[in-house]
Amino acid sequence: MTTRRRFLSVAAGALSIPLVPEIASSDQDWPTRPIRAMVPFAPGSSIDIVGRIVLDPVSQRLGQPIVVENRGGAGGTIGSAIVAQAAPDGYTILVNASAHSAAPALYPDLSYDVTRDFSAVIPFGSAANVVIIAPSKGIKTLGELVAAAKSGNMTFASAGIGSATHWAAERLRVSAGFNATHVPFKGGVEAVTEVMTGRVDFACMGIPSAIGEINDGKLLALAVCSAKRSSALPDVPTTIEAGYPDSDYNYWFGMFVQAKTDRAIVERLRRETQQAMAEPAVIDKLKSQGMEPLPLSPAEFDALIKKEVASNIALAKAAGIKVN
After folding, report:
1. Is the pLDDT at 4 greater than 60, yes or no?
2. Whether the Cβ atoms of residue 215 and residue 133 lie closer than 8 Å to each other
3. 116 Cβ partners below 8 Å, 6+ apart?
4. Which of the residues 78, 163, 164, 283 has an alpha carbon 20 to 30 A from that of 41?
5. If you count DSSP H runs as helices and E runs as strands, how many of each does the chain have, helices first?
């Protein structure tokens, strides 16, 4: 389990990484006006919650407001397209999650190229998706859920087609070998509500979106969709522990800019974000949301996304996922 000491250790180690030397460049004049942060999912979604935790101290460090704009729809591609087409001046940034690398698998005719039109700035970390169900359903374990799904038609909610909540459920479904009907919603809040009321059977929701209802006993956490247990839900087993290989889903969160943005601006933004996330108050807030550190350089983050684009295309084929 990740402890606060672990968070501090990782943050301190990240800060010791040599930074690109500052040069006489546009970063010295940037920013001089508010920055627009595009979050391509609804308010209350996991990426919205985590993004706001990080962006608030970044704004303070930069000395300019960062205005969050939620532009949901089409698996995050609507908001992402706006950033891809924005001027590469550092005044429009994208705050996205794993849906970013899943988009090409669902939307082959995207107006942008995930790997060419964006530059990764920094990951905020990763958080597990958690398999949630209403206590009224009478299902206590993931094994019981899988058995019920195999014997009848079950439904699962998501924060939208192509969202990390959708992909996590599909990965579990393929691994466990059951069918279920996907019921996409406009965001995580609505999806959680529908599962909580029992109108939809289950969901693989990001921990930040579901932790409150789980702690209040309104939802039951059956398993976390990750290779190791979450520090936010230490008593909840993983889907791997439950006996379903390759059912874990890497659910990261991070920041991007238009690919042609001046590298000095990218480095300034990365540096200020890195230092903001090392603040003890921010560490505590992220930890309470089940976030785990993901210390990657921009190049490593870009490489991760490129790898995931290929693996998600393969998953879409295996699961028979298509956009109607």
Report:
1. no
2. no
3. 259
4. 283
5. 11, 11
